Amino acid sequence: MILSYAGDLLFMYDYDEDKRTWKIIAVIITIIIVSAIIGSYYMYLVMTKREDTDYVPYDGPGEYAKYYLKNDFYNEIIIEVDYMEGTMPDTGTLDYLVDLLDDVCEKNAIDYEISDEMDDSDQQVDYSIADIEQLKNKYQDYQNYMDTAVIHILFLNGYYEDSSITLGVSYHAGSCAIFKDRVDSIRIPRDARPFVSTDDFETSVVVHEVGHLLGLVNLNYDSDYSHEDKIHDSPNHCKNESCVMYYALEHSRESFRDKIYEQEDPRPPRTFGFYCMQDLEKLREEA
Ligand SMILES: [Zn+2]
Ligand SMILES: [Zn+2]
User: What mean pLDDT is predicted for residues 96-120?
Assistant: First the structure.
């Protein structure tokens, strides 16, 4: 009924063959254009859809977890370190990091390279993420290539722009920055037992930031355990105070430092706790 009415509208006053054909073509083109517009709008909605506020942007920390943890994509890891004058990392920290990654990543070889000392002219009092990204782009020599996945670590002087107590920040899927001066400024009481040093804090902060690059906690996956800290308004950290992914390992908080010194072994945590280890195993097993 409707179709015959539409047909009448099209053809009622005009039985000229050519004109009728053109009208049909015009109707078809109109239908195609309208469908294309509706289709692209729908695609736009799908592509820009955000699941929730914890949305991880493309190339955000955790996005390369499978590259680091599994052997399917790359079978080696190189840790590239670039540093500001006076902030060269402790080699004990990097040796420890390599050993730890050897335990949790399915790799044939893991190594580090202390690459560039950055120009004095690149030093700032504080750094925004954009500043840090600029330094990464200027100094990073290695990219994920062939057999090798890269973890890039910048050691900086000065402060993180957003917070003067920040010791480190993971800002990209393969990159983090350590605020070495801030780590070194952690005051160690003279009576600290046995021989705790700022290098111990440096090791913990570096492992913590690299832990984020491995996906901890709940970056890009959902843990089978409810061990993500929901109390301290600091997402993607572990509830467990003796796990290196505890939120306070990223900030110089005297209360936490004092708590550490009261322990039998007064060094800050530098290993992944049980639940974080379970998460890494889950990530390694994921297809
Ligand atoms: Zn953190
Ligand atoms: Zn943990």
Answer: 97
